[in-house]
Design brief:
42% helix, seven-stranded parallel beta sheet, Rossmann fold, single chain, alpha/beta, 270 residues, binds NADP nicotinamide-adenine-dinucleotide phosphate
């Protein structure tokens, strides 16, 4: 008996890092459910590109800040994707600048909804889905247990108070990795992946980005493909569970007092 094609669902999977992750899974032979919110045109272009290479694709649109989005999104998958779903990548997040002095309840609620509650809901919905799936007979023992993968940020191991609300959401999601791995064992694996700076972010200029992206132990730009390849590796390696892997050229070991985009202009970065 041949194994069914494994499916991955990538939130925010149409652009930037999410797009790199969608492409990496497709290159590894996975079918891809690409979630998007506003980037419908980019999602359609990526779907066309992947289908032309023979990858099954399904597009999903949702605002992840809405309550109940996790179960709703998974219920919108077609039967073959639902039956074959082996990985969820919680990649989408909102990155908005604030500080401990000016963060508001409204901003905290919006960022926690998108960056924490949606990944938690989606992971719970995936655990329920996997538990309902019938065993795939002969293929089951050779397949890795499905994985929920939270995309975090090297900031969680390199704290500074910039992007205060965003950082809080990622810290909570980092701690959820171990808790959820325990809660959903042996049905589901849960891991985290903490990228370093790899795309122009927030108010960054291109010049600032070009300098900031080299502020890491290797002093060279981080390739988004490294992060995407690691996501595929985690999904395909049965023994990895309950851990967080940094993929950041060692950025989290630098210990900057400010976010790297500010540190380079203030002369705080090496
Ligand atoms: N970029 C970096 O250098 C960097 C560094 C460290 C960590 N990370 C982490 O890596 C991940 C990807 O980074 P990125 O820079 O590629 O992300 P991004 O461009 O800031 O956001 C990715 C996608 O998230 C979606 N999104 C945001 N809010 C949403 C909402 N309320 N509902 C539904 N979708 C929503 C957007 O989809 P639509 O466009 O369809 O609206 C957006 O395209 C994030 O988790 C980020 O925290 C990134």
């Amino acid at each position: 008996m041949t194994s069914p094609v494994p499916w991955v669902l990538v939130t925010g999977g149409a652009t930037r890092l999410g797009r790199a992750i969608s492409l990496a899974f497709a290159a590894a032979g996975w079918a891809v459910a690409i979630h998007h919110r506003h980037s419908a045109a980019q999602a359609q272009a990526l779907a066309d590109e992947l289908r032309a290479r023979g990858t099954p694709v399904h597009l999903l649109c949702a605002d992840l800040s809405e309550r109940g989005v996790g179960a709703r999104l998974l219920s919108e998958l077609p039967a073959e994707a639902s039956a074959g779903l082996r990985c969820l990548v919680n990649n989408a997040s909102e990155f908005t600048e604030d500080s401990g002095w000016d963060c508001t309840r409204a901003q905290l609620e919006r960022l926690f909804a998108t960056n924490l509650f949606a990944p938690l809901e989606l992971t719970q919905a995936l655990a329920h889905l996997v538990r309902r799936q019938p065993p795939t007979h002969g293929a089951a023992p050779t397949l890795p247990v499905p994985l929920a993968l939270h995309i975090l940020d090297q900031k969680v191991d390199n704290l500074n108070p910039d992007y205060f609300s965003y950082t809080l959401t990622k810290l909570a999601l980092q701690r959820a990795v171990g808790l959820q791995a325990q809660a959903y064992a042996p049905t589901l694996r849960v891991c985290g992946l903490s990228p370093g700076l790899c795309f122009v972010s927030g108010p960054q200029t291109e010049d600032n980005f070009e300098r900031a992206r080299r502020v890491n132990l290797l002093r060279r730009p981080l390739d988004p493909a490294d992060i995407a390849r690691t996501a595929v590796h985690l999904a395909q390696t049965p023994g990895i569970n309950g851990c967080v892997i940094p993929v950041d050229n060692g950025q989290h070991r630098l210990g900057l007092a400010r976010d790297v985009m500010f540190a380079v202009d203030l002369g705080l970065a090496p």
